[in-house]
Structures are given as C-alpha cells and as structure tokens.
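Local shape tokens

___
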Amino acid sequence: MVRGYLRSKAQLILWVRGIILGAGVIIPGVSGGTIMVIFGMYEKMLQDLLRFHIKPYIAMGIGALVGVFAGGALLSFLFENHPDPTYAFILGCLIMSIPFILKRTKGVTNKRLLLLITGVILSVSLLELPTLFMGGALTVPQIFLAGFVSSATMMIPGVSGSAVLIVLGLYESILEAVREFQMVTLVVFVTGAATGVFMLAKVLKTLFGLYMSEILFFFTGLIIGSFRMVMPGAIGFFPLVTFGLGLALVYRFGK
C-alpha cells in the first residue's frame, strides 16, 4: 500500500512538473532544458531518451500537454492585459535558475568565463537575425521545421524554443494553432519536435559527459543574454511582486 502511494505521489509530481514544463516552453526566453535542469532531471532524461525509455515520462508528457494548451490561453491573456508583471515573473524565474546551474560546475576558469561571455553574445544576437518566414499560411515543411528546430534547441538549457520560433517568424502562427486547436498543424509540429528531441539527445549526452562545466557556463551565458527578451517596460509594485514570485518558484523547485 505504501509503495502504491509513493508511486502515485511520484506520478503526481511528474504531472505537475509536466504542466510547468509545458507552460514554460511557450514563453519566449524560457528554455525547456533549463526547466529540466532545475528539476534535476536533465541528464537522466537524455539517457532515457537514448534508450527509448519513455514510460516514466508519460505522466509528465500528459502534464506538458495540459501546460501548453492552458499556458497558451493564459499567456495570450496576460501579455495582452498585464505585460509588465508577466515579463517580471519570467525574469525572476530566469535569474534564479542561474545559481542552480552553476553550482553543478567545477569552478571558474578563464576558459569558462570566455564561454559564458560567448553565450551572452550569441543569445543577444539571436533576435537581431532577420525572420526566415514572413506572412501567408504555413506549409507542412515549415511547420515540421518549426517543431524540429524549436524542440532540438529547447533541450539545451538556456536556449528558448519559443525564441527560435520568433527568429523563424513562426511564433505567432504556432501559438495561434495551439490556442485554436488546429490539429493538423499541431500533429505535424509535434512530429517535427519528437524528431528533433531524439536526434539531439545523443549529441548532448556525449558533450555533457566530456565538457559538463564548460557547457553549463555557456548555457548560463545564453540565459543571461535572454534577459533582454523579458525585461518589463516599467517597474512598479505588481511587477516587483511577480518578480519575487518567479524567484520563489524556481528556488522552491530548484535542486
């Protein structure tokens, strides 16, 4: 009975984490990889993906779907009606994620600082690139590419899949598809996303095994560079409150 309760409790925790993950990945500037690092599940998830051992993540996957659809509707509402508190909350989440990432490294070196600075520059430069697709209805290859690129990059802590979609000029179209339950678009997108996840898992696992500290410093730079994407336009009482809530949320779930 106790074992059954623990198993159910563990599945409930995974489901809740899935909701947080699903809601988080649609927010520009927030990385799904960062969320998995904060949860302390990143390396294990990569290993399980390589073995196609996905059963433990079914509850998380269901939660992620709930988070994506609920988060898409909530995000549209919050950005439209309360943009500054929303951006402040996201900024708090990102800032508090940094110590949880860096504490897993083996200390500071000149090489690692250079990698951090490189990550900042690359992340800041991301939104300076011209969008690749402009206007018109999305084609199937474009939707597949959006899923492939955003999910593959989303697995890298510090890289926002939504930011990549913005660069591609596809973010609003995909968010609209989520909001309006456009099933054909979503199925193609998810197929591309799954392909990207499994193709990148082996590469990331190998690199993490060889250069974990260096990669984490680089990821931290990517996170710092993404701050500019989520800076509130004005600082007031409510943005400060939501900023604190973002800090507290990541601190609570950080590991």
